[in-house]
Amino acid sequence: MRIEVDLDRCVGAGMCALTAPAVFTQDDDGFSVVLAGQDTAADVPPMAREAARACPVSAVSLLHED
Ligand code: SF4
Using a 6 Å cutoff on CB, does residue 52 contact ligand 1? Predict the structure, then answer.
């Protein structure tokens, strides 16, 4: 599983970092950053799924790597 943020969509709303602070943070401009080691975690934390749902512009993707 891979977590990606589409920065062309991200509007810096911060919902991802608020919802799953162990997975996401925000850069100086407010845009989402996946924390090191979380982007390719074998088990995506449940809160990361919630963050993907919470993003108002659907910028967070949880991708299966098969
Ligand atoms: S919730 Fe969506 S729009 Fe807001 S910072 Fe996270 S990825 Fe960007």
Answer: no
* pTM of structure: 0.89
The pairing of beta strand 2-5 with beta strand 60-63: antiparallel
CA distance 59 to 38: 16
Are 4 and 39 in contact, with CB atoms under 8 Å apart? Answer: yes
Question: pLDDT tens digits, residue range 3-62?
Answer: 999 999 999 999 999 999 999 999 999 999 999 887 776 777 889 999 999 999 999 999
**H-type helices in 1-66, by residue range?**
15-19, 46-54
How far is it, in rounded angstroms, from Cα 35 to Cα 3?
10
* Angstrom distance (rounded) from CA 47 to CA 51: 6
Closest atom of ligand 1 to CA, residue 19:
1
